[in-house]
Write a structure and sequence with these properties.
79% helix
Amino acid sequence: MVSISKMFSKEWFRRDVIVIIAFLVLQFILGMSLNLFVAFPSIPAGSTDQAYLNAIVTTPFLLEHFMVGVGLLLGSIWILASALKLRRKGLSAIAAVGFISILTAYVSGFEFLLSGFQNDALSFVMSLGFIVALVSYFRLYQLGTKLKG
């Protein structure tokens, strides 16, 4: 069994950052597949929550994109907690930027769904959140390789 202190160690921090980068790449592939190859379901304005849920679960790439987004949001919280636990200069600030950018992408993606997939500005904000997150986590990995011990 792995202890909590080991899970917050420098070695695990680097592994966790690599995992979140891999999930960001997967999220990009799913998002581009949705954007280029999948017809979004038609959701009329004022639809019920069930209509939005049906749109997600009946469109496989959308469901996968949503599920990976939830995982990224939870992973970004974990990375932020790990960075705070390590108490290294700069790690926490960059992890916070990564978390905020993933949260921004998640919320704008949800709002894009609620717009009936019509508000392209929200899709753009989602992509900006992705880019900032990817850069942030690459920087965290670079700093993580320099951690001693």
